[in-house]
């Protein structure tokens, strides 16, 4: 990292700019407003000398709170951030971001991503901030913050709160999120009771921090580093480690420098940076939520990126990181093995990384990561001995939807043998579907023997997209009926217009767009129909004649389309009217035209 400048008084901005905060705090042309803006920020002890010194005013966008346990440690880290900011000659102003707790918010935290985004845009645009530290962590906090920084485009740096320490139960690693899927199967099979279920699940959360698996949080924090928005090597440091506090201090120092150098998100978030994120997502076994969030960030910064880019640039990338749910280990192990830079270094060796993409530290990703060795090759595998080849997402399309994705790195041997082992047609399977309308319907009926679900049934869930189930529910990975699990069938193929948790190891076909609620093909399916999936051709189709499909569509239109439950809150209704589909990042459509809106 470049050397830090001396503390107060600060050196003038390197770029010779007048910082935007001076329009509030030191504007001789408008003494009335300057006095009014200034006086209230003095009332908790800042001095006029500080606020009028020209020192960069640095926002700390605080996502931690008692309601957000995954990010709560940011309340502690903020102290070290402040010290870093002050050391480098800046003034810290901390403010809250609308909480988004993945596990706590009903009906889904996902609907709050766009709400937190909107709120943060207003704050960054409307207050005297020259730069901002984005305190990222739990799944949606990372995209919400990065989307807002992209829209407003003031200098911004992200600080991950870090994963929890490894969870353990009876000598085995228990990964947060992922253990729930296993515990459900154990309980469905009668091997543990309610008490045992809770104990097993709770063992996976032994400390402050976010999910220790490679779920959406670890994925998005890793990708925020790959995108260049946080300091190299900092994403994977576990929350309680001393290096996490040290990273907070360095981050605080660095954002002040970035303001002086006028390094903005639009300088960092280039198309090359996004393509690197796609590549690394495959190599880490990243979450199926990543395309939604990464595409949303790209949309807000104005970089073209499509769901097809994920297959084109990501599918052929090998899986190198042996973390649950695709592998065995957890977040502490990932950090000790070298974290994101060690993965990037391996991929650089194969020419898979665009090395010139910049990082907030002022260097390129190539310069930052090229020489990072693997410290534990059980956790991060060398690129010539990967866990899997072709570990990215397949993008599927057909008469069921225009786009859906499937995470190939979590296709189990059991799954491959049952569905993908026909030598004539090794990458295709077909089967009869059983259709559920939303998660309540699924939970109510999954164990009903009358459905006739067998080892070759394809489970479909619809009404779970951004509009049908506001925010899109994480429900597509459906466990088979308990009777089948007892017979050793641990997963069935699943298709849905919702999402699935990044901590799930299910090879579901998900994020189907358009969703049933806006007339997507899933709305036309009936239980008993046959569906064919061909991974090599990238197709997913209902096997019924076109004329029959047209009749069904006419019948659906005649009753006013696929039924939706009423909105429960004002925001649900507002978002339903404005939101796009999952393949387009589920962004608020009118928001996208507001780009680089920061004014002085
Ligand atoms: Fe917050 Fe997993 S629930 S990071
Ligand atoms: Mg989730």
UniProtKB/TrEMBL annotation:
Residues 1-12 have a biased composition (Pro residues). Gene3D superfamilies: IlvD/EDD C-terminal domain-like. Residues 379-585 form the Dihydroxy-acid/6-phosphogluconate dehydratase C-terminal domain. The keyword Iron applies. Residues 1-25 are annotated as: Disordered. Residues 56-368 form the Dihydroxy-acid/6-phosphogluconate dehydratase N-terminal domain. It is an enzyme of class 4 (lyase). Transmembrane segments: none annotated. Keywords: Iron, Iron-sulfur, Lyase, Metal-binding. One of its GO terms (molecular function) is metal ion binding. It comes from the Bacteria. Its EC number is 4.2.1.9. Belongs to the IlvD/Edd family. This is Dihydroxy-acid dehydratase. It comes from Azospirillum doebereinerae. The lineage of its organism: Bacteria, Pseudomonadati, Pseudomonadota, Alphaproteobacteria, Rhodospirillales.
């Amino acid at each position: 990292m470049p050397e830090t400048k001396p503390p107060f008084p600060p050196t003038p901005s390197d770029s010779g700019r007048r910082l935007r905060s001076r329009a509030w705090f030191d504007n001789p042309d408008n003494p009335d407003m300057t006095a009014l803006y200034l006086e209230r920020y003095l009332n908790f002890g800042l001095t006029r000398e500080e606020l009028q010194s020209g020192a960069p005013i640095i926002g700390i966008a605080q996502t931690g709170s008692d309601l957000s346990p995954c990010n709560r440690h940011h309340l502690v880290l903020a102290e070290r951030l402040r010290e870093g900011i002050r050391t480098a000659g800046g003034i810290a102003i901390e403010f809250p971001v609308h909480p988004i707790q993945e596990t706590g918010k009903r009906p889904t935290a996902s609907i709050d991503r766009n709400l937190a985004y909107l709120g943060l845009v207003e704050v960054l645009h409307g207050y005297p901030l020259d730069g901002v530290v984005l305190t990222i962590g739990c799944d949606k906090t990372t995209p919400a913050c990065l989307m807002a920084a992209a829209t407003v485009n003031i200098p911004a740096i992200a600080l991950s709160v870090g994963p929890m320490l490894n969870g353990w139960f009876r000598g085995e690693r228990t990964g947060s999120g992922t253990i729930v899927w296993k515990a459900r199967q154990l309980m469905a099979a009668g091997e543990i009771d309610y008490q045992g279920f809770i104990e097993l699940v709770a063992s996976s959360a032994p400390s402050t921090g976010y999910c220790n698996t490679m779920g959406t949080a670890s994925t998005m924090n890793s990708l925020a580093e790959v995108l260049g928005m946080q300091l190299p090597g900092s994403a994977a440091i576990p929350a309680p480690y001393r290096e996490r506090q040290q990273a907070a201090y360095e981050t605080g120092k660095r954002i002040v420098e970035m303001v002086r150098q006028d390094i903005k998100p639009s300088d960092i978030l280039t198309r090359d940076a996004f393509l690197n994120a796609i590549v690394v997502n495959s190599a880490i076994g990243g979450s199926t939520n990543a395309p939604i969030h990464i595409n949303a960030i790209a949309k807000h910064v104005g970089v073209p990126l499509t769901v097809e880019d994920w297959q084109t640039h990501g599918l052929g990338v090998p899986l190198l990181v042996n973390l649950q749910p695709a592998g065995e280990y957890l977040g502490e192990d990932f950090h000790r093995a070298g974290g994101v830079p060690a993965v990037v270094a391996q991929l650089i060796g194969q020419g898979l990384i665009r090395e010139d993409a910049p990082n907030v530290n002022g260097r390129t990703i190539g310069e930052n990561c090229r020489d990072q060795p693997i410290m534990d090759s059980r956790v991060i595998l060398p690129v010539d001995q990967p866990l899997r080849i072709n570990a990215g997402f397949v993008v599927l399309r057909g008469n069921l939807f225009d786009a859906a994705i499937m995470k190939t790195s979590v296709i189990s041997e059991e799954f491959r043998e049952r569905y993908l082992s026909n030598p004539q047609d090794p990458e295709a399977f077909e089967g009869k579907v059983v259709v559920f309308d939303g998660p309540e319907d699924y939970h109510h009926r999954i164990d009903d023997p009358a459905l006739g679900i067998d080892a070759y049934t394809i489970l479909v869930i619809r009404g779970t997209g951004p509009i049908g189930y506001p925010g899109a529910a994480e429900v597509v990975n459906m466990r088979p009926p308990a009777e089948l699990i007892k017979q050793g069938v641990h997963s069935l193929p699943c298709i849905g217009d919702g999402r699935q948790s990044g901590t799930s190891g299910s090879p579901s076909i998900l994020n189907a767009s358009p969703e049933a609620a806006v007339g997507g093909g899933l709305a036309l399916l009936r239980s008993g129909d046959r569906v064919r999936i061909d991974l090599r051709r990238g197709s997913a189709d209902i096997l019924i004649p076109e004329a029959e499909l047209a009749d069904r569509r006419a019948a659906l239109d005649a009753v006013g389309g696929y039924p939706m439950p009423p909105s429960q809150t004002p925001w649900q209704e507002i978002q339903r009217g404005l939101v796009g589909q999952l393949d387009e990042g589920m962004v608020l459509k009118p928001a996208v035209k507001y780009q680089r809106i920061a004014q002085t």
